[in-house]
Amino acid sequence: MLSNKDSAEPRQGFFKKLRARLNKGDSWLTYDLANLAPGGKIDEDVIDDLEAELVMADVGIETTERIIADLQKSLARKELKDVDALRDGLRRSLTSILEPVAAPLDIASEHHPYVILMVGVNGAGKTTTIGKLAKRFKDQGLTVMLAAGDTFRAAAVEQLQAWGERNDVPVVAQQPGADPAAVIFDAWDAARARDVDVLLADTAGRLQNQQGLMDELAKIKRVVGRRDETAPHEVMLVLDASQGQNALVQAEKFNEALGLTGITVTKLDGSAKGGILLALADKLGVPVRFIGIGESADDMQPFVAAEFVDALLSSGTP
Ligand SMILES: Nc1nc2c(ncn2[C@@H]2O[C@H](COP(=O)(O)OP(=O)(O)OP(=O)(O)O)[C@@H](O)[C@H]2O)c(=O)[nH]1
Ligand SMILES: [Mg+2]
Fold it and tell me: Which of 7, 105, 152, 281 has the fewest CB atoms lying closer than 10 Å?
């Protein structure tokens, strides 16, 4: 197995940026914790207020209930003596929800090429994520090829080619309007001929309720499978965190249509509070591979549950 190796240093820098950028540096959880319990005493009222905060932060009602039930048990056992104890309880609960989906993407070397099919709604960050991944894989010593499977949007091919040039990786493209399945099929042949390690396939954005376009993705998946029945090895959904609970609906529908194997959550640097990751983990259970906190290639790193919870619980100014 060739794995995604990350040195500690960029990781530290990423955590600082994540903490500073998530919800614009405002730690809604800790800020509110101190405010919710001004006298420092934790009681049912504080837990009720916290419940409302979690729901508003995109955690969703059912997942919030799960977290609140955990805290109520601790309260009944008289374990929540003060705000610190409440924060520790929250940390345990959030980590236990996120830990199971924090499974890094492993590029298995027996698949040549290892095919990653990128899907998602318009503007979620698919093409940018491909560019960032191309750089990451190249830096790890893997050879990479990109397939311009978005033949629909006028500038999509140029956008992918720009990432290809920047990272010095080849891009397989056809004319606008070409059948995306054919583009990706041909790209597979080119990748195999050149003994490329990873083939990253872009697709056009589409809404989860556009049945014809969802069927098109299923076709792409089938067609790639004709060359290598184990491909695509990763069907990765890209989700824009600022879409809140709607991102969960997207994830459920794309999962039904395609059987997702991984998710990348982008735009955690905007107004997003990040609660959507808890909802995704709890309700869907598909591994969250990467999180994105900006437009540059360094602004995306593998998802680490404990680190993310730390960013939620600590304020932006260390
Ligand atoms: N702030 C921020 N912007 C991002 C992030 N990821 C992507 N973007 C920006 O989001 C915009 C859309 O990204 P694309 O990669 O073109 O999205 P797409 O899913 O390929 O879009 P379509 O091909 O139109 O469906 C671009 O301006 C990106 O730079 C992120 O993590 N943070
Ligand atoms: Mg795109």
Answer: 7
Is-contact 308 18, C-beta < 8 A? yes
Question: Domain range spanning residue 127?
Answer: 114-304
Kindly state whether residues 225 and 92 are assigned to the same domain.
Answer: no
The type of residue at 259 is G
Same domain, residue pair 160 and 224: yes
Cα–Cα distance measured from residue 19 to residue 17, given in angstroms and rounded to the nearest whole number: 5
pTM over 0.85: yes
Same-domain pairing of 228 and 95: no
Query: Does the beta carbon of 101 sit less than 6 angstroms from any atom of ligand 1?
Result: no
- Tell me how far the alpha carbon of residue 127 lies from the centroid of ligand 1, in angstroms: 7
Q: Assess if residue 109 is contained within a domain.
A: no
Q: Tell me whether residue 310 is in a domain.
A: no
User: How far, in Å, CA of 158 to CA of 249, rounded?
Assistant: 30
292 lines ligand 1 (CB under 6 A): yes
Q: Note the pLDDT tens digit of each residue in 231-241.
A: 999 999 999 99
